[in-house]
Amino acid sequence: MKTQSSAPTEPVNEMIDHCIRRHRFTTAGFSARIRCVVLLTLVIGLSLVGCKGEDSTSSTNGLTKVRLALNWKPEPQFGGFYEAQIGGHYAEQGLEVQIMPGGAGTPTVQMIGAGSAEFGIVSADEIVIARDRGNDVVALFAVFQDCPQGLMTHAERNFTSIGDIFKTPGRVAMQKSLPYARLLAQQYDFSKVQVVPSPGGDITAFLADPDFTQQCFVTSEPLNAARRQVKTKTFLVKEAGYNPYTVVLATSRQYLDQHPQTVAAMVEAVRMGWNSYLKNPDSANAAMHDQRPDMDETTFKESAQAQLPLIMTDYTTNAGVGMMQPSRWQELIDQLKSLGDIHTDVQATACFYQPQP
Predict the structure, then answer these.
(1) HSE of 117 in the Cβ direction (CA atoms, 13 Å)?
(2) Domain with CATH 3.40.190.10 in the chain
């Protein structure tokens, strides 16, 4: 039986990119793009219907084939997943993993729900919203314990907290529909600032205007600004009380129930990969750079270093990389419910499953 390739999904991903390319961030802005991705997800499912039975099949070398759909292009936030491949950890666990790079708006949470990928990378708020809407997806491993999303300001403004941004006139570029932005709007008076659309990863406006603040990932835009000799101060959105797990490995409940040993093997291989990557990211960075020549080797190195404290917190230092807590899920559920993003009683313990290391 032939291995299912990623070719049928590529035209669909291109359509998705064209349709929702403005949504650089992959958090619960999902609700704003649901109409676009639902139809395209149906296309994905139809394109794969003839190969449905090929999921989790054994290859000629006796390994179980699975697909891992990323929600962005190869870069250090996915380093451990690539390290697990390079270091042979997937094979050690009896797996042959096809890593499928994504792009802007790749609907990984829908893809795993529809079965067009056995595993996918999502954010915790996408999990909660998907479950509220009947998509029974489950988190397995959370790479980022602290969300890397933040607001980048010019250091010369001498802000000391995220609230200071809204006390001083200036422009703030962010997606107002995102949960953290709405929580900020509840906590602070926006009357002194002009909120403008997020430019994604483009920092041109930021460089030109010392009173400009923009939405960012702390592992990306601040590094870009530093290379242009511009000093920045970035405040994580967790300061606003919003801190969903990010870069989360997930699968569908159906796949988990039908293939528990494969899921456990995948989680163990991923854990081994991340432990190796955190010690020495060079090999995986080089492999990802081969697929991302637009991102230079220095940026890979700096980004890998910048994300370390977001991955290895006091909790994961003791519990292990990727581990999750029910209380964090419950806090997120309560926040999304208070914002009106979910309307059913999503259970925290049903959102994730963790085979013990």
Answers:
(1) 32
(2) 9-146+244-350, 149-240
Tokens representing 120 are 């996918």
Fold of 9-146+244-350: D-Maltodextrin-Binding Protein; domain 2 (3.40.190)
Candidates 3.40.630.30, 3.40.190.10, 1.10.357.140, 3.10.450.50; CATH matching 149-240:
3.40.190.10
Per-residue model confidence as pLDDT tens digits over 113-127: 999 999 999 999 999
Cα distances (Å, whole numbers) of residue 323 to 32, 95, 185, 262, 307: 29, 21, 31, 18, 16
**Model confidence pLDDT, tens digit, residues 121-167:** 999 999 999 999 999 999 999 999 999 999 999 999 999 999 999 99
How buried is residue 273: exposed, middle or buried, by Cβ count under 10 Å (0-12/13-18/19+)? buried
